[in-house]
Write a structure and sequence with these properties.
This protein is α/β, with parallel strands linked by helices. It is built from 14 helices and 10 strands. The protein has helices at residues 2-20, 37-44, 47-50, 65-71, 82-90, 135-146, 160-165, 180-186, 213-218, 220-239, 241-251, 257-267, 280-292, 302-305; strands at 22-27, 53-58, 77-80, 95-102, 107-111, 126-129, 152-155, 171-176, 192-195, 207-212. The chain is globular. The model has no long low-confidence stretch (mean pLDDT 93).
Length: 312
């Protein structure tokens, strides 16, 4: 009888916790991939539930959708990029980053042509970019710094390899050194690239979690719970990366395991540390660069786009 009562009580508590959980809608920056491993580890390990939240994960149709929808309050959280978030703030969108996800640049200027030895070798060519509103502007700054002249920017979206193989473009701004290098190799192509931070672009946080200012004010407790759950997942990745990868692959059985496993090995060292917050000094350095090279028009205070949890 006591066992039956205890079991009934446990089921009741579980049902109540589910019923009382506050729902958050998270939109990814792209289709699910190993960059998002901490999200799926937190979900599959019950860390969101522990924080009293239920997280619905959505994939966007375009990479710029997530930030726009977060700013408009149509999703609660978005995986976005530091450069894009700074540019959005410059355009008047009310968004804030609540936590970093990948703290080092992964994007590169990628190419196949072995004769390209320096960025200036791309002068007079067509250069692709992946994400309008961020990578095209990064390309402009990169070109100005590195003496690339008379180039034509072309939006190739994520048809990166076909655009390079067909010689539609000579290089593409935006492909990740942790992902496209793997997928290119699997298709017999040798990806070469210039790492942006080694060619004059200040180091920035590649992926961050952002929220619209109004939603953040309204659901601050739930969003803080989300951040704490992610920090717990990041600790799991740090302590047992193989187990974390297995959890991710189990959550997404449709992904290519070989690709994701190789990409994870390259990506994992770039995840934020547990408890790590965005660095205002690094954000300021990128803001100064963005202002100097015309990526933004107005001077922005990093504290206006980084949510300060310590002040709460």
């Amino acid at each position: 009888m006591k066992r039956l009562f205890a079991l009934t009580l446990i089921i009741f508590i579980m049902l109540c916790s589910t019923a009382w959980a506050q729902k958050l809608v998270l939109m990814l920056d792209w289709f699910p991939n190993v960059d998002h491993t901490p999200i799926y580890v937190a979900q599959q390990s019950g860390y969101f539930t522990e924080q009293g939240i239920e997280v619905e994960i959505l994939a966007p149709s375009e990479t710029s959708d997530a930030l726009k929808l977060a700013a408009a309050g149509q999703v609660d959280l978005a995986v976005s990029y530091e450069p894009q978030t700074i540019m959005a703030a410059d355009a008047g969108l009310m968004v804030k980053t609540v936590s970093p996800l990948v703290v080092k640049p992964l994007a590169t200027l990628m190419f196949l042509n072995k004769s390209i030895k320096s960025p200036a070798d791309l002068s007079g060519t067509k250069i692709g970019y992946t994400v309008p509103g961020s990578e095209d502007l990064l390309l402009k700054g990169f070109a100005d710094i590195n003496g690339i002249t008379d180039y034509t920017p072309v939006n190739v979206g994520f048809t990166i390899l076909p655009a390079l193989v067909s010689k539609q473009v000579s290089a593409v701004m935006g492909p990740y050194k942790t992902y496209e290098t793997v997928t290119f190799a699997q298709q017999g192509a040798d990806a070469r690239f210039f790492e942006l931070e080694k060619y004059g672009i200040p180091e920035y946080e590649e992926l961050i979690f952002t929220a619209g200012s109004a939603i953040l004010e309204k659901k601050e407790k739930a969003i803080r719970g989300f951040v704490l759950a992610i920090h717990k997942a990041l600790a799991d990745i740090q302590n047992d990366p193989d187990k974390a990868l297995a959890i991710y692959l189990d959550a997404l059985p449709e992904v290519d395991k070989e690709t994701e496993t190789k990409a994870f090995a390259l990506t994992a060292p770039n995840f934020a540390a547990p408890g790590q917050t965005s660095d205002p000094g690094k954000w300021q350095a990128f803001i100064d660069f963005a202002l100097k090279y015309g990526l933004i028009k107005n001077r922005i205070n990093p504290q206006d786009v980084i949510h300060n949890w310590d002040a709460k």
